[in-house]
Amino acid sequence: MAPLLFLFFLQFLLLLSSPSTQAQNISLGTSLTTQELNNAWLSPSGEFAFGFRPIEGNSSFYLLAVWFNKISDKTVTWYTKSSEQDPEPIKVPSGSSLQFTSTGVLSLRDPTNREVCNPGAAGAPDASMLDTGNFVIAAAGGSTVSWETFSYPTNTILVTQVLSPGKVLRSRLLTTDYSNGRFLLNIETQRAALYTIAVPSGNLYDSYWSTPSDENATNQVTDLVFNMAGRIYISMSNGTQINMTFGVTSSMENYYHRATLDPDGVFRQYVYPKKPGGISQAWTVVSTKPENICNAQTKVGSGTCGFNSYCMFDGNSNQTSCGCPDQYSFFDKERKYRGCKPDFELQGCELDEGAAMAQYEFNLINNVDWPQADYEWYTPIAMDECRRLCLIDCFCAVAVFHENTCWKKKLPLSNGIMSSGVQRTVLIKVPKSNNSQPELRETRKWKSDKKHWILGSSLLLGGSVVVNFVLISVLLFGTYCTITRKEVQQLQPSRDPGLPLKAFTYAELEKATDGFKEKIDKIQHETEKEFAVEVQTIGRTYHKNLVRMLGYCNEGTQRLLVYEFMINGSLNRFLFGDARPQWSLRAQLDLGVARGLLYLHEECSTQIIHCDIKPQNILLDDNCIAKISDFGLAKLLRTNQTQTYTGIRGTRGYVAPEWFKNIGITAKVDVYNFGVILLELICCRQNVLLEAPEEEQSILTYWANDCYRCGRVDLLIDGDDEANLKMKKVERFVAVALWCLQEDPTMRPSMLKVTQMLDGAIAIPTPPDSSSVIYSLS
């Protein structure tokens, strides 16, 4: 991949001659690596450090960063970002290095010594980590600065730092997640403003706080300044200053100072005592903008806490928190800003008032409001009538009542707030506690559909032979079941008493399917041997993530297999269609396929190697549970057998390298196939894509490896908002996939290890390039 560049502009170093900015020069030819115990360059006082910081929760990746070095939590104040068009954090794997070369170039390199980025400065005589927290590279000649971290702020500003118009602070997603967050402090020509930003498009919603602006454009912003007295202000062209925060009473000499745009959208100024002495050794908030972000409303967007949630502000701690109404829960307890979802399904457009009253009730909450979500309102009106009108309206999820006025609201609810100053009563519609969940649409649909009606009747009537035959017939007719015609010699019926399959006649199946009228997929012809293998193999297995065979036909030249009903078809059709499935569902499918393979490899009485794991052979039931199918190529290993020799099997793009070598085939061929599928599920694209936007993206397995080595896994999920919010899990899944794709089969993990790594139960070492041998996870 092309090297990524730092953002950079030229700026003179402030207060270069003051004692606080004394430099400890870094000599040409000096380097740092992630493996070194002291992998940082310190400022003269040791209060600040510049070097590699491990990313919280993922010791395999590092940031090149600046941090407070003498406090316990090593608070990061700056970190490398990529290009100006896509300013995401640059994450480098273990084994990376930072080199200040003999030619005066600062170069960040990955473990293969490939340059990831450099600031563009060349010929510098030295570089320095200053006691202000600014890392600088001197210009040729040494009298000026060619590059400095203060010119490229992340989410933090430090004392003596100045931001000119065009500069921004961007919040993180979480304190422990350095990905771009949802809030922006923008220094504009007319004002400084805080915005909610749409991820990943970058669209700015209306500002939720700003300094006054000059409509006549005669008085413009020159800088945002964090001065030596601890005051942060906007400097205007006419000489006036607009305070963002006021000077703090805490001693500048005895406290560390910083101001940060936090993940909840609040710009906070903090202090931290340099010496213990009965004072809490922690960052303390001394000023905020806005003072209460819960009161900051926006016309578009979810607000601070996400849709269907409400924001609460604690004036004592200057912190915000988020809550969900009763019978609602957070989408993600760690990332509460994603909002809340109802723990039920609202139904009832076809219900009359009596039926609606029997099915729903209301929970009441006081001092809560969602001011942006009403679609209809009434006044004057009594609360009982407000409640009734919401009850009989299937669009109405919440009614808000205040002083004889009723607002009806539908989901999603936005800009929620809970406060003693909010004089509202909220009525939230929920199912009655003694009432079962409303029928799902698919459950009701069968009543008007003949095939589903027969299926429902069969389930009610019970287990007679005739009813079972009708059930299987409907499964065949409705079907993503596999029905194949084979013109091969007659296969003798199985006499294995342990084979729980029903033998059908061809006439029975032909009649049940109306002459095989509805064909979903075209199945390739199999040999008699392959047909026998599939019957015998899957007939003896039963697992949640394996398609269950119900029966077969072995009559004359006819070979038919009867599988359970798979309403959602194949993963191939599901994953590569027009709409991208949600990340949470794709992650669930990853684990389902992995557990199915684990069963085949390690939990069967006879180990089974599938040999052709691919999206076409993974089917989805009505709950989108992944089930492995098509065992026509499977190989069975005896208890004392570890490998087998066979001809090349599988499908282009999924075939493990050992198929082309004169070595034994093991269960690791399935592990390789799973690695390909795992990447396809992550990226929602096929492994081989000849019409890819860039040539380097044509083969997904190669491109994913390149992205991982450069710390740019985010490129693999570009445009996927949900996956971007789960970046840690995405990085974990990509690492697992790269382990599965090792060329040497002995380097690949077992499926037990794979499931443990996917679940986060065990740590994942950095996967090596295929040409190197570093770890073994077998």
Automatic annotation (TrEMBL):
Xref: InterPro entries: Bulb-type_lectin_dom (IPR001480), Bulb-type_lectin_dom_sf (IPR036426), G-type_lectin_kinases/EP1-like (IPR051343), Kinase-like_dom_sf (IPR011009), Prot_kinase_dom (IPR000719), Ser/Thr_kinase_AS (IPR008271), SRK-like_kinase (IPR024171)
Keyword Manganese: no
Keywords assigned by UniProt, alphabetized: ATP-binding, Disulfide bond, EGF-like domain, Glycoprotein, Kinase, Lectin, Membrane, Nucleotide-binding, Receptor, Serine/threonine-protein kinase, Signal, Transferase, Transmembrane, Transmembrane helix
EC class name: transferase
Gene Ontology CC: one annotated term: membrane
Subcellular location: Membrane
Signal peptide: 1-23
GO terms under biological process: response to other organism
Segments forming domain Protein kinase: 469-762
The protein's Enzyme Commission number: 2.7.11.1
Catalytic activity: L-seryl-[protein] + ATP = O-phospho-L-seryl-[protein] + ADP + H(+); L-threonyl-[protein] + ATP = O-phospho-L-threonyl-[protein] + ADP + H(+)
CDD domains: PAN_AP_plant
Topology in membrane: Single-pass type I membrane protein
Protein name: non-specific serine/threonine protein kinase
Species of provenance: Leersia perrieri
